[in-house]
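Hey, can you fold this one?
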Amino acid sequence: MNIHRLAVLSDNYVFVLHDPIKNIAAVVDPAVAEPVLAKLDELGATLVAIFNTHHHGDHVGGNSALMKKFPDAIVYGGEKDHDRIPHQTVFLKGGDQVTFGDRNAKVFFVPGHTYAHIAYYFPPVNDQGGELFCGDTLFAGGCGRLFEGTPAQMLASLDQFRQLPDDTRVWCAHEYTLGNLKFAIAVESDNPDLQERMVTATVMRQRGEPTVPSTIGLEKRTNPFMRWDVPAIQQAAGIDIPDRVFARIRGQKDNFTG
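Sure. Predicted structure:
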């Protein structure tokens, strides 16, 4: 399975999955259709699946146009997103599996950003490592805002990701990394891994390079929203109860202007 990252809108990423053996494709969170159609034309591939993580317009905005071109494609989304994702025909819950080509993905139910959010995890197969498509739940250096969920829900969702192998690649849906890392540095300035990551990410963005994908291991070392049980993060929050640590740090990020 090859993964093609498409930069769209102001800071979104759309991911086209391509099985070169069967010459079929799937797309994760198509914000818009045109770049996806162009990539499919370049690959000469048939779209067979749309994997949506949640209902926000910058994740499902391309569904209708893609279905017009590929009416036999299957549209996947969370069971609690019923009537919120255009053309959705499969309603997934945590623990379900989906298949694309020769890869099976486990579905995680990860409420917090929205109450219906899901993620797709393709475990390692042969020489291909694990791939996590997490929508707006986990970002490089950060996490999504809590529009419909609670801090406790988001913590539990991110804790599911913390259990994945460290080399799992994290395909998040936005290029928010530099802003997230500025906040992370403000919270945990003495973290050498974080300092190094900030330098690396800054150079990458200056070159116009994407910082996505990340890895679970890197997030566990540098992302404050994956580190609620680390003393430095608890000290920054002024409390050591996990969901309250998370809530305090998330509130600080919401008001961060650095």
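DSSP finds nine helices and 14 strands in the chain. Let me know if you want another pass with a different chain boundary.
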